[in-house]
């Protein structure tokens, strides 16, 4: 089941299924490790949303989170 990233709660994990929006923004997120197939954990939901992605953390605004579809997964 796919859902927008902003639907995950603190401590929940997801796998990125799709990133939509401006191509330059999608490319920049991919450079930062947020791309299709990558796993993430929500550290702090809301605006800003703080994510753990690979070995780093990424902060996004709420409107940006709604453009990222994830598949919920069990913690890794």
Automatic annotation (TrEMBL):
It holds the Pfam family FeoA. One of its GO terms (molecular function) is transition metal ion binding. Residues 3-72 form the Ferrous iron transporter FeoA-like domain. Signal peptide: none annotated. Keywords: Iron. This is Ferrous iron transport protein A. It comes from Limnoglobus roseus. The lineage of its organism: Bacteria, Pseudomonadati, Planctomycetota, Planctomycetia, Gemmatales.
